[in-house]
Amino acid sequence: MLAKQALNTEIEPLESNDAVSEAIHSMVVLKVSSLPVVDDTTGKLLGQVTLEQLENAESDQLISDVELQQPVKIYYEQHIFEAARLMLQYEMRLLPVVDKEKTFIGYLGKTRVLESLTHMLNLAESGSVITIELKQRDFTLAEIVHLIESEGAKILGITVETPDIQAGVYEVSVKLNLRDISRVAATLRRHEYTVLTDSSAEMLGVDVETRADQLIKYMDM
C-alpha cells in the first residue's frame, strides 16, 4: 500500500500567516508536538514548527516570525512501511504527505498506518505465529516455506527482523492459518532450524487480531 491510498485530507496544515496562539491550540487539540507549515498561496511544504518553539514565542506573533525546522515528510508514492518507520523514529501521530513538487496533500495518521499494516500482514486472520532464528549465511525462505506447507499449513504472512545485526542473526516470523502449530515446529526442528516460539504458543496459537487491536489502541493514546 502506498501513502496516497491512506490519506487523511480533513486536517489542515499551518500557514505562514496563522497566529502562534491558533497553532498552539491546533496542536493541543490534535495531541501532536509538531505541525507542518505550507505556503499560503502554493500549498508547498515550507517546514515544520514544534509546540516547544511556539510556547517560547509571543502569542500574538505569526508563524512567519518563527524559525521553521526541516520537515519530516513522506512522498505520496512511497510505501506505508516507510511511513511506519518515520513515525516510529520521530514519534509522530501525523505524518505530512507531499507530491513530487513538495505540495502538501494530506496526512497519514498513526492509527490508519497500523490498520494498513494489520491488513497487509494478515494480522486480523485467526491463526498462529511461529518464529525461526536464522544466521545470515543460512538465510533462505524456500526450504522453510516447503517444510511448513508439507504439514498442510497455509502461510498468511512473513516478517523478518534483525535483532542482532553484528551477529548476523535474523528472526523470521511466519503467520499460519493453524491454531496448533506443534507439528510444524517439530518438522522445522527435525531439519535443524532453531524455533523460538514457546510451547504454549505452539499448542494454543496466538490471537493476533486481539493483539493487533490492542496495539492500535495503545499507539493511538
UniProtKB/TrEMBL annotation:
Keywords: CBS domain, Repeat
The keyword Transferase is annotated on this UniProt entry: no
Transmembrane intervals: none
Domain of life from the UniProt record: Bacteria
PROSITE patterns associated with the record: CBS (PS51371)
InterPro entries: CBS_dom, CBS_dom_sf, CBS_domain-containing
Record-linked Pfam families: CBS
CBS domain sequence ranges: 7-66, 67-125
Name this polypeptide is given: CBS domain-containing protein
Species annotation: Halalkalibaculum roseum
